[in-house]
Design a protein that fits this description.
The structure holds two protein chains of two kinds. By secondary structure, chain A is of the alpha+beta class. Helices cover about 65% and strands about 10% of the residues of chain A. Chain B has a seven-stranded antiparallel sheet. Chain B has a three-stranded mixed sheet with strand order 11-13-12, with helices on both faces. Classes of the chains: A alpha+beta, B alpha+beta. At the A-B interface, helix 1, helix 2 and strand 3 of A face strand 8, helix 2 and helix 7 of B.
Chain lengths: ~350, ~375
């Protein structure tokens, strides 16, 4: 009980959950899912989120998740209904002309990143509108379709530039999403730019290129099979490591260029600490065949909360309830398309 | 005196309050002055979320659905429940603060474990019973699907006279024991492995390899009778029901609903690589010997076939698709069959035996796409 209302400027964000408790929730959820032939899935999801949210404490107050399993289930059913209608329409198109049908499928396939982006945006809009702090709802403004088309356009550019556009894409998308994020009447902000990251990105990119060339040279230089395998593994590990380094750089960059009102954020964990977290998480998951997932989730959240430094104050009295509740259709579609997280 | 925070749901400002229960009302007071900030009926309160040990209560009042009352002292809940016993029990939110995590771990973990073990033990059995209770037409349809699936990979032998000889043999075995010959459909798969199996609905498959390996018609008749016995005893249907039960269970455990869709197609492989229990095999052997005896066919073919296969296995080694390697209970089966076997007449005359052996000869094979019935 003394965890509540704790002062202390140093630790404004704290994660108070327990891996064991979350594991128990997973256990009961698994049983209920089996008994209900999987339908409990949606209620299980809501229950896990309620637990995860309410154990994140900020300025002495915990987050609240107000979404329900029923909502998620309805969202899923509506997404199913839409899918059935689309399939029916496609069937009719095929009845009219086979070539037209194939054309429609090809266009749909090419445009699928737009749909994925749209679903992700709608799903996070739902999640944010079901998240409250101090009774005030969060919200995500902006248009999911717009985000979807940005996602599509930037993906296309990234493909055409052989991946080099990727950091610009990530920053454009983060900018759209974060600048549209609200806590009540308080808008969040993001000032990150791809040009700040491109140098570090090209370093990883170049190293990958060098690694592949080196691998090819070694492959034709008459190494024995065993030596070849060892050299290959070393090169692969080096490439993975440099991309890991870049992903941490990008994450830190995003955090430190985000704001909420007068508040600024910074991720203070060093590369070594981040690497130790990821490596031990991976090891835990592998060694326990996934059973440690609950502990991994909780320790990751605790780590992130611990190392997130927050400066500047919130004028809570000035923040009004301003965001409306979004529906769960996007989350249902994301679930159907298998692109949902958490 | 209970201390709490009130968030009015209009702004994010927090108001410190003292909380008191007066009759059926919850009263929020300004600390120090004792000025009443708000009163609300206790019966309109509910918990916003499950409450774990060490976590403050978050209460929602029906009159102010956007507002939140946060109280760290769990004693308030006991007081409130004195007035409103349903509090925290409705809406699926529970109070978990009164039991230590370790206690709950043992309790919940134990309960879930027991339930899972019970499910793992019972679901496949239930699948078996459900499958066995299926209408005959469904069983037949399921069998046809499986046969189509398997014959797509290998093709079926279409020697007309050979198939005729096989059908005559099936009729003879069925009729003499009082079964309807139309309940069985025997076919030959154009595959070199030595195997035979029964799919649901009396769909029996022998392989070209088996016919080539057999030394006489009695051996083929014995294998045929054995598979017919499996059909009569509904072993294939039950095996598929059991396998589907297992798959369904694990799909549900892993939370993967799409896996259920891919199940039907795999039923065929289950049969092809089937392994019935030792008891089921012995039971089918006994019935097969009875079928052969009733038909007056020399039932010594079973033992001679088994013995040759066992000898050859010693040289070839176990192979996945070999009829023997999926029958680990061979010595017991040979022993039982030796006890029950009777001499009798030949299963086929020499001419029909040759016709049957030549059922897969050049040009008579069809790659079945739609599961053509060759009869």
């Amino acid at each position: 009980m003394d965890t509540h209302g704790k002062p202390g400027r140093a630790q404004r964000l704290a994660y108070l959950g327990s891996g064991m408790e979350l594991f128990l929730i997973f256990l009961v959820n698994t049983l209920l899912k089996v008994v209900t032939l999987g339908i409990y899935h949606f209620w299980a999801k809501a229950r896990v989120r309620r637990y995860l949210w309410t154990h994140m404490e900020f300025d002495g107050e915990r987050l609240e998740y107000t979404g329900t399993g029923g909502e998620l289930f309805m969202g899923f059913l509506r997404a199913m209904a839409i899918m059935v209608l689309v399939m029916l329409a496609l069937f009719l198109v095929f009845q009219v002309s086979e070539i037209l049908g194939i054309l429609v499928i090809m266009v749909a396939y090419i445009m699928s990143p737009a749909a994925i982006g749209m679903m992700l945006y709608m799903a996070s809009r739902y999640r944010l509108s079901r998240t409250r702090l101090r009774g005030i709802r969060f919200g995500l403004q902006g248009k999911a379709v717009e985000y979807g088309f940005k996602f599509f356009g930037y993906s296309l550019l990234t493909g055409l530039t052989l991946g080099i556009y990727k950091p610009y894409m990530s920053m454009h998308l983060a900018s759209y999403a974060l600048n549209n994020t609200w806590f009540g009447s308080q808008q969040a902000g993001f000032t990150g730019q791809g040009s700040d990251l491109i140098g570090r990105f090209m370093l990883a990119y170049g190293a990958t290129f060098v690694g592949i060339v080196a691998g090819l040279v070694l492959a034709f230089s008459g190494l024995t099979f065993g030596e070849g395998i060892i050299a290959g593994v070393i090169i692969l590990l080096a490439i993975l490591l440099i991309w890991y380094w870049y992903s941490v750089e990008e994450m830190r960059y995003v955090v430190s260029h985000s704001s909420l009102g007068d508040m600024r954020f910074a991720l203070q964990a060093s590369h070594g600490k981040m690497f130790m977290l990821s490596a031990t998480n991976l090891l835990l998951i592998v060694l326990t065949l996934g059973l440690a997932y609950a502990w991994v989730t909780v320790r990751t959240l605790r780590f992130m909360a611990h190392y997130t430094d927050i400066t500047g104050d919130m004028d809570y009295a000035a923040i009004q309830q301003a965001q409306t509740q979004a529906d769960a259709l996007g989350e249902g579609m994301a679930e159907l398309a298998d692109v949902s997280a958490l | 005196m209970i201390h709490g925070f009130w968030y009015d749901g209009v702004s994010a400002a927090r108001t410190e309050v003292e909380v008191r229960v007066v009759g059926r009302q919850l009263v929020l007071l300004e600390p120090g002055s004792g000025y009443t900030v708000l009163t609300m009926p206790v019966t309109g309160l509910r918990l916003a979320e499950d409450v774990y040990a060490g976590q403050p209560l978050r209460l929602i009042c029906a009159d102010h659905p956007e507002a939140r009352l946060i109280v760290a002292d769990h004693a308030l809940l006991t007081t409130l429940r004195g007035v409103h016993p349903g509090l925290g029990r409705a809406w699926g939110r529970s109070y978990l603060g009164n039991m230590s995590l370790r206690q709950r771990f043992v309790l919940v973990g134990g309960f879930v474990l027991v339930c899972l073990v019970a499910l793992v033990a019972s679901v496949p059995y239930m699948g078996e019973e459900v499958a066995a209770a299926m209408p005959v037409e469904w069983e037949r349809a399921a069998g046809e699907k499986i046969v189509t699936h398997i014959s797509r990979d290998y093709g079926l032998c279409a020697g007309e006279e050979g198939l005729g000889a096989l059908a005559v043999l099936v009729s003879r075995l069925a009729l003499s024991s009082g079964y309807d010959p139309d309940d069985f459909v025997a076919r030959v798969l154009d595959a070199s492995m030595i195997n035979a199996f029964a799919a649901p609905g009396g769909q029996i498959m022998l392989t070209r390899g088996l016919l080539a390996d057999a030394e006489n018609g009695e051996e083929v008749a014995a294998v045929l009778a054995h598979e017919m016995a499996h059909s009569v005893l509904a072993h294939p249907t039950r095996a598929i029901g059991r396998a589907l039960g297992y798959r369904l269970l694990f799909a549900a455990l892993l939370g993967d609903a799409t896996a259920a869709a891919a199940m039907a197609g795999q039923a065929g492989e289950t049969l092809l690589n089937r392994s019935y229990s030792r008891e089921a095999e012995l039971e089918a052997d006994r019935l097969a010997l009875t079928l052969l005896d009733n038909a007056g066919i020399d039932s010594r073919g079973l033992v001679s076939f088994f013995e040759r296969r066992q000898r050859s296995r010693l040289f070839v080694g176990p192979r996945g698709s070999d009829i023997l390697s999926t029958h680990p209970s061979f010595p017991a089966r040979i022993e039982q069959a030796s006890r029950y076997q009777r001499p009798g007449s030949a299963a086929l005359d020499n001419r029909t035996w040759q016709l049957l052996k030549g059922i897969c000869d050049e040009g008579s094979t069809i790659k079945s796409e739609k599961g053509n019935n060759n009869e």
